[in-house]
């Protein structure tokens, strides 16, 4: 079968793997097959391992017992996995892969190829790159903390090299999206009348459908658009403008897809690099000034476009590690400075305490957010941010230190490093450590409890009065028993559901 003809298309980074935590978990499963020949049978085995861990959840044959195991992060047995594989034949076809489960495998892992983490094709060995190995090293499935530095640097490296026109995706658009965005922000900054605000969020769709890598041309286009529509165009105007840039849609496109869904997903991914800050309550996008040297380096070294004859040639390029990006490209950790305390307070005032509580309860119930700032932040990281804000409101005269990595806008980019508590509250001579998670059920003990005692011991070296508050959507009985056991041994740990935390932080 011949490959389909290349076309101009909107930038699509929405796959079945939506966020970095999920991608890392999927790659950890595939890592066990590194160096093995990929066959249809191996594809199905890998998919079975995803199902075993609840990383991919099929629809048919899911019993209450299976749901309970997934809920508690327990593994399914072989019989349960085989039954789900058999009951859920995949109505799916990807180029180069047989219909069914092999094609589902490619859907799950193709983003890992685009970003240079792992190379695979039927009949050849699965091959993790040095970058891919860095991404999965020393971590476990469903570990929310990961290494914050590694995550940010890895995606910075990946997006610096990522080309829209590559043999995997076969589109005519020829640009490096992240580099194009940085160039546009630089060009807009030169326009004293229309460029000082950065890129408006409703203008991001123009970058998503832009055909070339000419940042100056796109910036001039945006300025002319602003002169006509200012900063309040309707979604219909933005959608029609995108269609004009595109030269007509290749397939029927929903206005919400072009003006909201794709921009949100692209922004969500670009935020992973640490380079992009949010302004004006989510209405504008600008460069994180703390990492301007990184942006300057990228614009100097990564603006030139390359062409690739084969998928392997492209993979070998995008998988190369740039030591400068891996060593230098890290956003700041929230500090205890007056400036950072003021930044927390400013977000408290922006959202308002009632909205903060409402959004925390949304997280507890698994409900989505409609807020332009919060909806681009992954839910576990959003919980850390909102929890810090509620503590800052409640203890406004105390120091609240949120250890997530942040941009110059004060918004979180990635989780607190593994050697720190999520949040520290300094109240007089007492230090309260807050560990927050969205994990439910008995899985809380497996994923969260061991670090709590380790962190408390570490902090005791510098503080005489330290206690820990564990916050989750609900508190499992195993967690209660675990805390009682360690409190009997001299630790000071307490549990709160998110609802209890909202009522009394």
Tell me about this structure.
By secondary structure, this protein is an alpha+beta fold. Helix content is 48%, strand content 10%. The chain has 21 helices and 13 strands. A 5-stranded mixed sheet has the order 7-10-11-12-13, sandwiched between helices. A 3-stranded antiparallel sheet has the order 3-5-4. A hairpin with a 5-residue loop joins strand 8 and strand 9 (412-414). The longest helix has 18 residues, at 443-460. The radius of gyration is 24 Å and the shape is globular. The chain starts with 19 loop residues before the first helix and ends with a helix. Mean pLDDT is 90; it is low at 144-149.
SS elements, strand count: 13
Contiguous low-pLDDT stretches (5 residues minimum) are 144-149
How much of the residues is beta strand, in percent?
A: 5-15%
Number of helices: 21
Helix fraction by DSSP (H/I, runs of at least 4): 40-55%
Give the topology, please.
Blueprint lengths: L19 H12 L8 H13 L11 H8 L6 H10 L13 H14 L3 E2 L7 E2 L1 H7 L11 H14 L15 H12 L10 E2 L3 H6 L5 H15 L5 H12 L8 H17 L4 E4 L4 E4 L4 H10 L9 H8 L4 H6 L3 E2 L4 H14 L1 H13 L13 H16 L4 E4 L2 E2 L5 E3 L8 E5 L2 E7 L6 H18 L4 E8 L4 H11 L5 E5 H6 L2
Parallel strand pairs: 11-12, 12-13
Antiparallel strand pairs: 1-2, 3-5, 4-5, 6-8, 7-10, 8-9, 10-11
Helix pairs in contact: 1-6, 2-4, 2-5, 8-10, 11-12, 16-18, 17-18, 19-20
């Amino acid at each position: 079968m011949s490959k389909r003809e290349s076309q101009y298309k909107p930038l699509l980074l929405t796959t079945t793997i939506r966020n970095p935590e999920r991608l890392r978990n999927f790659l950890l499963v595939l890592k066990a097959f590194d160096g093995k020949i990929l066959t249809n049978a191996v594809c199905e085995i890998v998919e079975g391992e995803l199902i075993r861990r609840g990383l991919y959840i099929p629809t048919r044959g899911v019993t209450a017992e299976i749901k309970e195991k997934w809920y508690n992060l327990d593994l399914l047995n072989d019989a349960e996995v085989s039954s789900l594989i058999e009951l859920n034949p995949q109505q799916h076809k990807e180029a180069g892969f047989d219909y069914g489960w092999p094609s589902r495998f490619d859907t799950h892992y193709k983003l890992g190829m685009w970003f240079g983490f792992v190379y695979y094709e039927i009949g050849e060995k699965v091959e993790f790159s040095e970058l891919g190995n860095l991404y999965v090293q020393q971590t476990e499935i469903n570990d929310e903390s990961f290494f914050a530095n590694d995550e940010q640097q890895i995606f910075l490296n990946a997006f610096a090299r990522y080309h829209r026109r590559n043999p995997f995706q076969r589109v005519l658009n020829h640009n490096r999206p992240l580099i194009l965005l940085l160039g546009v922000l630089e060009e807009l900054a030169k326009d004293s009348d229309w460029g000082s605000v950065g890129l408006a969020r409703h203008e991001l769709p123009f970058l998503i459908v832009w055909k070339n890598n000419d940042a100056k041309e796109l910036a001039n286009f945006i300025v002319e658009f602003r002169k006509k529509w200012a900063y309040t165009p309707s979604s219909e105007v933005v959608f029609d403008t995108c269609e004009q840039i595109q030269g007509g849609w290749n397939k029927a496109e929903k206005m919400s897809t072009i003006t909201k869904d794709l921009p949100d997903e692209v922004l969500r991914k670009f935020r992973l690099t640490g380079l992009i800050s949010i302004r004006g309550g989510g209405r504008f996008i600008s460069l994180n000034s703390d990492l301007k040297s990184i942006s300057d380096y990228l614009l100097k070294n990564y603006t030139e476009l390359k062409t690739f004859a084969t998928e392997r040639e492209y993979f070998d390029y995008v998988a190369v590690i740039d030591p400068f990006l891996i060593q230098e490209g890290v956003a700041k950790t929230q500090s205890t400075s007056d400036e950072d305390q003021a930044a927390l307070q400013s977000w408290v005032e922006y959202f308002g305490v009632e909205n903060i509580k409402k959004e925390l309860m949304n997280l507890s119930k698994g409900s989505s957010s409609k807020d332009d700032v919060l909806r681009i932040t992954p839910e576990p990281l959003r919980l850390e941010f909102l929890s810090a804000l509620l503590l800052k409101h409640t203890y406004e005269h105390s120091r609240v230190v949120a250890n997530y990595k942040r941009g110059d806008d004060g918004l979180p980019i990635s989780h607190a490093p593994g050697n720190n508590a999520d949040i520290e509250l300094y109240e007089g001579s007492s230090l309260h450590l807050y560990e927050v998670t969205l994990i439910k059920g008995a899985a809380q003990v497996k994923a969260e409890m061991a670090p709590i005692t380790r962190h408390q011991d570490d902090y005791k070296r510098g503080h005489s009065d330290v206690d820990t508050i564990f916050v989750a959507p609900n508190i499992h009985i195993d967690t209660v028993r675990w805390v009682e056991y360690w409190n009997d041994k001299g630790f000071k740990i307490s549990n709160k559901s998110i609802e209890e935390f909202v009522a009394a932080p």
